[in-house]
């Protein structure tokens, strides 16, 4: 086919070319015109082939080959034109018809009861009989045992037939269980068809029906931007079994489902079930068997509603059904591909935003952890500094209290006994400085007085050197003095500690030579042991 010049195109073809180049950003008009010619100037099919690639076979040629042949060429051409017209989107219909919008169904209800009323002629004929029966039954009721039972039941059934009769109803199940029951019954009834050798010995597998309720399947198709093919069957229909075996279970339809497995969901139902009955009313089903192709609408202002793009009503050959489904999917594939691209872009943007938020949260958490550790370190340093200051203060206070205690204890020590006192005990003490001091103590004096003399010797010595009386010093409050030395007799070694108590006369005797021995931590440990 020769590629015409742009100036030779019709206004409709020029508009199609502009739309194609605007969507695809293709700068080569010759290649665009060639692709549009192969697509019969259908912009949506051309855009779909541009993004998805050229198919191995031409769907339009397949559709033309699958249309049943007629005796005249003119009739075949008219069918082909009708098929092409069905594939081309109608530019005049800019809005979605209300009956094409698919809504969620109420799965809580049951199949409405069908009413049966006898014909008016039958009612008129049996009216007198009904009146007479009532009269005689009232009068002769005491003698009812004489009338055969089957006659009474026959008259009662003819005259009091219920005005409402319900068809055979199936037990209501949840949507998912209902779908699995339909698949199980479908396999049990038509499963033997798989074992029969058809088309040269090849076997046909059962259909991939979705094992979920209609509402869940519809939401899945809307979320994943897929096509939803709904098949509704009525077992009471005469051609139901023929339609299933020759059309639904045909090799052509099976190949079609396999080729569109990634973008098509199949859902089936039995109209005897409540959910399938509600779906048939929702999809405006008027004849069985029924098939409807549903996808998300691309019309402006549709808000992504799910709409019916194809209704296949009544029995039809598999080639015709495949052709209709193929053309309908091809005509809406471009819009769904664009929607999928937008959805993928939104998903990528959301994932990137989540990753950025996660990285920010991790960084913020790390900063918070560093700040927490820094505050803990500062708090630990502050507590250590406070403890050090407190220890220094306590040490200074202890030192001050000790000095005050020594001054107070020095002024409270009794004077040395005079030489004529018979019970005076003479004690020689070698101080830590090496100086030896000899002093007398009263025999009844406690050992603590001897220790206090040694502790306060420097103060007593300084006071004697100054020869002045020191003012009275009070004992420090809340202070308990601990002696840091002990008095030891060198030979034989004997320790005169304060824990033993007693007086100086009892512990030391009439006299003794003592050494002031400092107490260390090691000595404390040995004493404890």
TrEMBL record:
Q: Name one Pfam family in it.
A: UBA_4
Q: Does Coiled coil appear among the keywords?
A: yes
Q: Mind telling me which PROSITE patterns this protein's record contains?
A: UBX
| Any GO CC annotation of this UniProt entry | endoplasmic reticulum
Protease listed as a keyword: no
Q: Please note every region of biased composition (Low complexity).
A: 336-350
Domain UBX spans what residues?
420-494
Q: Name one GO biological process term.
A: ERAD pathway
Question: So which domain of life are we looking at?
Answer: Eukaryota
- Annotated region described as Disordered, given as residue ranges: 336-376
Composition skew (Basic and acidic residues), residue ranges: 352-376
Q: Which SMART domains match?
A: UAS (SM00594)
GO MF terms listed in the record are: ubiquitin binding
Q: Which residues form a coiled coil?
A: none
What UniProt keywords are attached to this protein's entry? Coiled coil
Please give the name of this protein: UBX domain-containing protein
**Organism, as annotated:** Cladophialophora yegresii CBS 114405
């Amino acid at each position: 086919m020769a590629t015409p010049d742009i100036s030779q195109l019709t206004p409709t073809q020029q508009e199609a070319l502009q739309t194609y180049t605007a969507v695809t950003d293709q700068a080569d008009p010759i290649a665009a015109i060639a692709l549009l010619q192969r697509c019969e100037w259908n912009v949506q099919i051309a855009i779909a082939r541009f993004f998805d690639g050229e198919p191995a076979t031409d769907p339009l040629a397949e559709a033309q080959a699958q249309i049943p042949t007629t005796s005249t060429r003119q009739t075949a051409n008219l069918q082909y034109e009708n098929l092409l017209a069905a594939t081309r989107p109608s530019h005049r219909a800019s809005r979605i018809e209300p009956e094409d919008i698919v809504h969620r169904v109420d799965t809580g209800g049951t199949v409405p009861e069908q009413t049966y009323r006898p014909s008016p002629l039958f009612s008129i004929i049996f009216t007198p009989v009904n009146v007479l029966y009532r009269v005689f039954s009232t009068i002769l009721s005491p003698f009812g045992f004489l009338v055969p039972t089957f006659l009474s039941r026959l008259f009662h059934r003819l005259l009091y037939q219920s005005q409402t009769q319900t068809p055979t109803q199936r037990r209501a199940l949840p949507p998912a269980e209902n779908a699995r029951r339909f698949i199980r019954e479908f396999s049990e009834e038509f499963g033997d068809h798989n074992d029969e050798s058809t088309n040269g010995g090849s076997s046909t597998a059962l259909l991939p029906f979705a094992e979920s309720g209609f509402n869940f399947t519809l939401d899945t198709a809307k979320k994943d931007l897929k096509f939803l093919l709904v098949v509704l069957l009525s077992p009471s229909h005469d051609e139901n079994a023929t339609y299933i075996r020759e059309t639904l279970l045909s090799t052509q339809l099976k190949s079609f489902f396999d080729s569109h497995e990634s973008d098509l969901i199949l859902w089936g139902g039995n109209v005897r079930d409540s959910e399938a009955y509600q779906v048939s009313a929702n999809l405006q089903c008027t004849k069985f068997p029924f098939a409807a192709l549903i996808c998300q609408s691309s019309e402006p202002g549709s808000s992504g509603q799910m709409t019916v793009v194809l209704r296949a009503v009544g029995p039809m050959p598999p080639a015709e059904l495949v052709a209709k489904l193929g053309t309908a999917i091809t005509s809406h594939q471009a819009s769904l591909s664009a929607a999928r691209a937008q959805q993928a872009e939104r998903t990528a943007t959301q994932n990137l935003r989540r990753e950025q938020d996660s990285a920010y949260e991790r960084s913020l958490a790390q900063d918070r952890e560093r700040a927490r550790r820094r505050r803990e370190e500062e708090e630990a340093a502050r507590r250590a500094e406070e403890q050090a200051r407190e220890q220094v203060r306590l040490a200074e206070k202890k030192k001050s209290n000790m000095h005050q205690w020594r001054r107070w204890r020095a002024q409270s020590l009794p004077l040395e006994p005079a030489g004529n006192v018979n019970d005076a005990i003479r004690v020689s003490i070698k101080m830590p400085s090496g100086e030896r001091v000899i002093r007398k103590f009263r025999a009844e004096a406690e050992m603590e007085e001897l220790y206090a003399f040694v502790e306060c010797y420097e103060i007593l010595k300084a006071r004697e050197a100054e020869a002045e009386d020191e003012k009275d010093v009070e004992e420090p409050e809340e202070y308990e003095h601990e002696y840091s030395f002990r008095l030891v007799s060198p030979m034989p070694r004997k320790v005169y500690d304060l824990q033993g108590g007693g007086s100086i006369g009892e512990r030391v005797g009439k006299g003794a030579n003592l050494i002031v021995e400092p107490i260390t931590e090691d000595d404390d440990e040995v004493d404890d042991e």
